[in-house]
Amino acid sequence: MNDKILNFSIRYGFLILLFGLIVYFSIAAPGFFGPLSAAFVLQSVAITGILALGVTCTLVVGGFDLSIGAVATSALMLSAYSMVILEHPAIVAVTLCLGMGALVGFINGLLIVKFRVPDLLATLGMMFLLIGLQRIPTQGNSIATGMTLTDGTVAEGTFSAAFLWLGRHRFDVVIDRLLPMPVVIFVAIAVLIWLFLGFTRHGRLMYAIGSNARAASLVGTPVNRYKVVAYMISGVTASIGGILLAARLGRGDIASGNNLLLDSVAAALIGFAVLGAARPNAFGTAMGALFVGILLQGMTMMNAPYYTQDFVKGAVLVGALVFTFYLSSRRTGTRH
Amino acid sequence: MLRRHFMALASVASLALGAGAATAQDAPAPLDNPGDVTIALVRYLSTGDFFQAYLSGVESQAAALGVNLRVLDSRQDAALQADMVDQAIALGVDGIIIQHGLTESMREAAQRAVDAGIKVVAFDVNVENDAIPQIEQSDYLLGKLALEQAIADNGDNFAAGYVYVPGIAPLDRRHVAWEEVKKANPGITEAARIGTLDNPIANANANQARAALQANPNISVFFAPYNEFAKGVKIAADELGIGGDLSIYSADISTADIALMREAGSGWKATVATNPAVVGEVSVRALALMLAGEKPGASVIVPPTLITQTFLNDNDIRNMEDLGSKMPQFQHADVAMADWMPLPAR
Amino acid sequence: MAGDALKVNGLQKSFGKNHVLRGIDLTLSPGSVTVLMGANGAGKSTLVKVICGHHRGDGGTMTLAGTAFEPEDAADAIRKGVVTVHQSIDDGVIPDLDVANNLMLDRLVERGHGLFVRERHLRAEAAKVAAAMGIDVNLRARVSDLAVADRQMIAIARAMARAPQVLILDEPTSSLSATEADRLFALIDRLRAQGVAILYISHRMSDIRRIADCIVVMRDGAVSGVFETKPLDYEAAVTAMLGHRMTEVDVAVQNGSTPVLELHDLQLFDGAAPISLTAHDGDVVALVGLLGSGKSRLAEILFGIAPSHGGEIRINGQHYAPRSVEDAVAQGVFMSPKDRATNAVIPAFDIADNMTLPFLRGLSIGSFLKPRQQRNTAQGMVDQLGIVCQSVGDGINTLSGGNQQKVMIARWLLEPARVLLLDEPFQGVDIGARRDIGRHIRATAQGRATLVFLAEIDEALEIADRIVVMNEGAIVGEHANRNVDLAALVSDISGARPTAAGPAP
Prior knowledge:
Strand order of the largest sheet of chain C: 6-7-8-3-9-10
Largest sheet of chain B: 6 strands, parallel
CATH class of the largest domain in chain C: Alpha Beta
CATH topology of the largest domain in chain B: Rossmann fold
Helix content of chain C: 25-40%
Largest sheet of chain C: 6 strands, mixed
Oligomer: heterotrimer
Number of strands of chain C: 22
CATH architecture of the largest domain in chain C: 3-Layer(aba) Sandwich
Low-confidence stretches of chain C: 498-505
Low-confidence stretches of chain B: 1-25
Shape of chain B: elongated
Helix content of chain B: 40-55%
Structural class of chain B: alpha/beta
């Protein structure tokens, strides 16, 4: 009986908590419940969610990617530089950013599998490198149309409408101009990664690598190749996040994106607890991002100051981790 | 003369805002029942003395009106700030103050708020919307008043040092005043120009100022139109032992700055500042006018105040509170007023 | 009896519905080795965990030297004088510290120990402990660089630093070769002489014959036999464990005619003697040898993990030189590695995922897996090998060691192999499961050459058509599995016969 309750709470506890939270805020915070509010919650988690899905892939192979925040801000600056200063069209800017993300992921992977640098250190180094690199072309200035360049000329390029559309377009769902484009992209990426990790043999082999890399290699899995691919996925999704951020801001703003890394890592880790998976998974990550989004939206509506929100975010993360590692170990601990 | 200049400006501003009605009356709807009115302050910048003081002004004016205030703080996250405007819309607030931010990210969010029938004012950010009045402190006047004091103290014939970093909007506006003064007074020459925003700003500028002062011993006046710049120049002058011979004119003020200006032998002669708390109050009042159906105008300018070393010493002013109580025009700007408008208690 | 070290009376333990211990009685006497036997899942590990304070019993009593013994936790049990060396060696040592620090670790955590480590003093003490235990290794060597046997000795030495009344050894020889095990037995003899009560858990009959003073057999959570009068009746003990009489396995020796795997003057490492060997279609060849004899190296070369140093390998007459494991598998050479926990088991996966891991490509359309086919394939193997589980969706770690090993072997039987390599397939496996695996390997042997790498002669005799003995990277003897001259075999293994003798004709 006790085991049943334990198993049930491990499996559904998190989703029940999420549902309870929605009910609570709907009652306590007028204006919380409704399509408009739901669209805002999704919008506020879309970009961190996309980054979190990439990090999930590296967590699956037993790695970690600390460089995602810096990749996203680099993509933000690169797209601005490409369009405003080099006057490229949107398609070129987007391609450049995706290529940059893939390249950074490839280098991360190479550092880890080839040069044997531990994943945390390799991606930490990459993070610093990118934070510096993205500011070199403009001497640390934000990029906006009409800015004066170092040679005295004025940047004439603009963010093209097609590019801004990526971040700003809202689809008519239920009410006019409700569902923002980044949310659609977030959901699409979530479904893709969910299918990839959960239902393809590549995903299965990546989980095997994360659980026991040696055993995976001894059944003939090309472990290094899969690890590099995982970091490349992480780099590309982070650059997509950066593109969407740039399209929402409409300028290459150096101050934006500071919280991306921590928020998305938190979402991926909270995701461990969803459905009692006790391992990184795409559905959990998306739910984790949504959970944080709903919590913050609700607290904001109830007028809680930002520092209490950080506190609550941390408490949720710690709670989810305890939930994952302690309760799940009790569940499987009956036999060794 | 400066005082007169300032008074004239203030009265022009208040006339322009249509705040001259004489008879007292109850607040118009919906402010006759202020408990049902909610306004939101959506912030981009929040850490630092200036922004804290601004918030305290918003809070005290909102309290005086009796309306509910919600503070949404994006902590320099431009995308989040836009989301927060959406959140405020979802909350069904009556009015929104947008405090700082990026034009590109806020323009559409502000338009959505206007479309939702919400009254919006913006402080120090241009959201390019005719329906949204701009609350501004006049950076041009900040520079202009400081330079007029410099001429009053030193005559119109001196070699000057100047601190400037191009590309920063408020500094660019203050720079306009400097260019005008140089053109109007051929006797004033710019012997050296320095400036950096490297952190810590005061320290980095001190290093540059020391080099400039050593190379140009003829400099007797330094125009440093930002308090961190002035701090840096003062450090350099003190280290070179010429603190008494160099006059520094700046903009902005804080309690720490007051202490520096009042040090024995300090060369920091005057600064020009707008009280950020007053700007906060004006922001709320402008929004209240809009809620009541009145028009505060496309641009609401909060006039700056000249604060001299002599004034600080004569009145033994030690901090911002002292300054407010001894200098009424620093405590209150007669802008965005109506005769029904309650003011914060002093 | 007042002289008993540890007395367990009517011990009960359940996990949920699972009634694991059903009233166990056990008495350990000072200066005597009690061997605990039992098939996997009989409840041995649970009993040990209750005694060493890892679990609390649900009923029954335990007394230690006459006083009630109810350990709060593992540390409490150790304080009271009951020390356990667990099966997994690396639980007993800190791999990244050197030998001296490992030996002295328990002193360092004592409350009375000062803040600073006195390096020289520590090394002198450690040298004393090592000498007393007969451990002969460089005290500055990192434990992770040591051989398994040395690590095991250090784990036991650490346990002995506590001067326990009761020492529990859980399958201590499962990773040791015969000579290494002999060193361990010498140590156990010494401890027995010092009056320690020892509980020794093992599957290996040779161990049991060597050291047992008394045998306690468990089956299905209860004691099914106690043997304490000498001479001990080993056959009866095995019968009590399995529930039926142990019969000698009769191997119907095959002699295949089509050569499948041919080694021509293969050098395992630089300077090693070249080896030549032919395995035919349907052959099951056992390669036996001590740790370090080169048999693991040979397996690694054949599976594309390590390079050879000269010579040639041919499979079905074609040159074979795998660049990687992936390449080896693609060419039909499969290997089930030793140490399944480290090298084979994916702990996060269920049975079906573990079993089908190498051949997912065949179980998917494009990249997408076909879960039903995956489960059906696994279920087929579960039925064939008699894997005891509720469904193929069970987590791999819910299985006993024997059943886990069956899953690991089944993994490589899913698709036809040209050469199947099994490295220590019976490690930590009870006799029942061992028989099942052996029978199935022999039954499916047609169509491939099977090489089984083993340390135990008993196991080799049970499964092989031929037994090839390796020593120092060379083949030193070959025996058809029919009326084997055991004495000659053992002397081959220990290297007593000169290498020049070569393979028997």
